[in-house]
From TrEMBL, chain A:
Subunit structure: F-type ATPases have 2 components, CF(1) - the catalytic core - and CF(0) - the membrane proton channel. CF(1) has five subunits: alpha(3), beta(3), gamma(1), delta(1), epsilon(1). CF(0) has three main subunits: a, b and c.
Keyword Membrane: yes
Name of the protein in its database record: ATP synthase gamma chain
Functional description taken from the UniProt entry: Produces ATP from ADP in the presence of a proton gradient across the membrane. The gamma chain is believed to be important in regulating ATPase activity and the flow of protons through the CF(0) complex.
PANTHER family: ATP SYNTHASE GAMMA CHAIN (PTHR11693), ATP SYNTHASE SUBUNIT GAMMA, MITOCHONDRIAL (PTHR11693:SF22)
Gene3D superfamilies: 3.40.1380.10, ATP synthase, gamma subunit, helix hairpin domain
NCBIfam families tied to this protein: ATPsyn_F1gamma, PRK05621.1-2
Stretch forming the signal peptide: none
Alphabetized InterPro entries for the sequence: ATP_synth_F1_ATPase_gsu (IPR035968), ATP_synth_F1_gsu (IPR000131)
Gene name as annotated: atpG
TrEMBL record, chain B:
Subcellular location: Cell membrane
A Pfam family this chain is assigned to: ATP-synt_DE_N
Protein's name in the database: ATP synthase epsilon chain
Organism listed in the record: Nocardioides flavus
Coiled coil: 89-133
Assembly, per entry: F-type ATPases have 2 components, CF(1) - the catalytic core - and CF(0) - the membrane proton channel. CF(1) has five subunits: alpha(3), beta(3), gamma(1), delta(1), epsilon(1). CF(0) has three main subunits: a, b and c.
Similarity-based family: Belongs to the ATPase epsilon chain family.
Gene name for this UniProt entry: atpC
All residue ranges annotated as the ATP synthase F1 complex delta/epsilon subunit N-terminal domain in the record: 9-88
Length: 305, 134
């Protein structure tokens, strides 16, 4: 309280410039989020058609595939954590990481080793700081992921999943992804899903009574079609997760920046009030000093007369 | 399937990040791993892998659309054709000059490299698509 008016003025100024920054970030996030949602919508047809094709194969042929078979005795799991590259998005990254930690604990409780894969600088930094090994990390795209990135991540995870167990390393028996699901502008929830082995259960539409199921012809052969279909399915699922995470990140950032701007407003109001009080106190003091001085002079004069 | 008569196919050409083309068509030609396949209405259900190449669509209005696609799938059922590829472009979206340059670059990158070979095939498909369309 004992600061001078000048110091309060300086504080108000710096809060104002901070407010300008948070306001700008809020607006940027707000405009990007629409784009992110559009991208997520644009990617939906591919995912839908792919799911349809995969479930067609799964429903109409009895081919087993390495990516769909449950390992008998799962020993090792891989977890991909999808976070943002940059901060200032409220609890966005930390809540994904928390969810990932919960999953890791659960997997360890089941007696599985956990390999970590990180997407986004925040997850990378988190694990590095705690000196936990991350098998591979991908960064630099969190707010606008491309399909190429998803394809690369997918290829890496599939490779780890299909690798044979040998002396140097054990193969990964299951792959999980932790990302933030975008529900609405106001709510995004961290979710953990198991990616591999794939569970393809959803049939296209349940056939109606008397309706014949289409008997698919596969070219060149069901197993070969499945061979190229399933990796793409995995990649598209990862792409979906990345797009959802991007939309969530922007929504979280917009919300965080909005409350920061509101908070800056409050602070400015408070500081202005205190500064005015300090100014007034200064004036009052000066007046009482002058009055006191005049009184003292008058008293001295009165005594001498 | 609602909206599709016996005379036409409901076609969807989908890339990983967008819907490239969709509409009614009378015939679709695509290149599968086994060779070119033409799909007419009432085709038997088919699921096949396609390779980098050109997809030819004859629309119900008699127009011809040509697209260059990457490796992917074609699935046919109930007069519904979906062509899925990680990347797909309509012929009028392709920049011919750029495709030619890419072809040159990919050829220089090496004959033995798998990725380069793929890039060569992709660039060739794009150039073919433009040439067919013009």
């Amino acid at each position: 309280m004992a600061l001078s008016v000048r110091e309060y003025r300086a504080r108000i100024k710096s809060t104002e410039s901070m407010k300008k920054i948070t306001r700008a970030m809020e607006l940027i996030a707000a405009s990007r989020i629409i784009k992110a949602q559009q991208r997520a919508q644009a990617a939906a047809p591919y995912a839908r058609e792919l799911t349809r094709a995969v479930s067609a194969v799964a429903t109409f042929s009895n081919v087993d595939h390495a990516l769909t078979t449950e390992p008998e005795n799962p020993k090792k799991a891989a977890v991909l954590v999808v976070t943002s590259d940059r901060g200032l998005a409220g609890a966005y990254s930390s809540s994904v990481i928390k969810e990932a930690e919960r999953l890791v604990e659960k997997l360890k409780g089941e007696g599985k080793d956990v390999d970590l894969y990180a997407s986004g600088r925040k997850a990378e930094a988190y694990f590095k700081f705690r000196q936990r090994t991350v098998v591979q990390s991908w960064t630099g795209f969190s707010d606008q992921p491309t399909y190429d990135v998803a394809a690369e991540i997918g290829a890496t995870l599939i490779e780890a999943f299909l690798a044979e167990t040998d002396e140097e390393k054990t193969a990964v028996d299951e792959v999980h992804v932790v990302y933030t699901r975008f529900r609405s502008m106001l709510s995004q929830e961290p979710t953990a899903v198991r990616l591999l082995p794939l569970e393809v259960v959803e049939g296209t539409e349940p056939p109606e009574e008397g309706d014949l199921l289409p008997l698919y012809e596969f070219e060149p052969s069901p197993s070969e079609v499945l061979d190229s279909l399933l990796p793409r399915y995995v990649q598209s699922r990862i792409f979906f997760a990345l797009l959802q995470a991007a939309a969530s990140e922007l929504a979280a950032r917009q919300k965080a920046m909005k409350s920061a701007t509101d908070n800056a407003d409050e602070l400015i109001k408070k500081y202005t009030r205190i500064a005015n009080q300090a100014r007034q106190a200064g004036i009052t003091q000066e007046i009482s000093e002058i009055v006191g001085g005049v009184n003292a002079l008058a008293d001295a004069n009165a005594g001498s007369e | 399937m609602a909206g599709s008569s016996d005379k036409s196919l409901q076609v969807e050409l989908v890339a990983a990040d967008r819907l490239v083309w969709s509409g009614q068509a009378t015939m679709v030609i695509a290149r599968t791993t086994e060779g070119d396949v033409g799909i007419l209405p009432n085709h038997a259900p088919l699921l096949s892998s396609i390779i980098e190449g050109v997809v030819d669509v004859q629309t119900a209005e008699g127009e011809t659309w040509i697209a260059a696609v990457d490796a992917g799938f074609i699935s046919v059922a109930d007069n519904r054709v979906s062509i899925l590829a990680e990347r797909a472009e309509m012929s009028h979206e392709i920049d011919l000059e750029k495709a030619r340059q890419e072809l040159e670059r990919a050829k220089e990158a090496g004959e033995n490299d798998d990725a380069a070979q793929e890039a060569v095939r992709r660039a060739e498909a794009r150039i073919r698509a433009v040439e067919r369309a013009s």
